[in-house]
Every structure is written in C-alpha cells, then in structure tokens.
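Reference record
================
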Amino acid sequence: MSYVFMVARPGQKGHAAFDRFVEKSRPVVAAFDGHFQESDGTESTGQASGSGAMVVRFTSMSRARAFYESEDYARLHGASEQ
C-alpha cells in the first residue's frame, strides 16, 4: 500500500502557536482519513514531535489533496497565520 505524507513545521509565530494548530488539526485530519505519525513511522498522538514538525499520513493522494483543499484546513491555516 502506498501512502502520502504531509509535513508542517512552525512558522514565525513560534512553537506555542504551532502546537495549538496541531491540536486543532486533529479532527480535520481524521475527517480525511489522515493519521499523525512520528518520523520513525510509528503512529503519533498528534502532538508536535521533538523535531518540531507535524507529519500526517494519508492513504492516497486524493485524500491528502481533499484535506489540503478543504475549507476546514483553510480556516485552520488562515488562523495560524494571523
């Protein structure tokens, strides 16, 4: 089975804002069959890892694209940039 991975890292707002973004992302990621993952391949609780990155695994490119293009993700992403 193939997977698609998306990686997000903290921006200029810093780690606290990024951690809030990760927390709020959980239900949106789940709605598109995504799973948070650690860099070693194990499933994660969805917290930003020690690397300071969020890694999400999707079962297909279509699910990853649907997540990325969703209104829910746009709202989360927009709120994290404010």
The helical segments are 15-31, 61-68, 71-81.
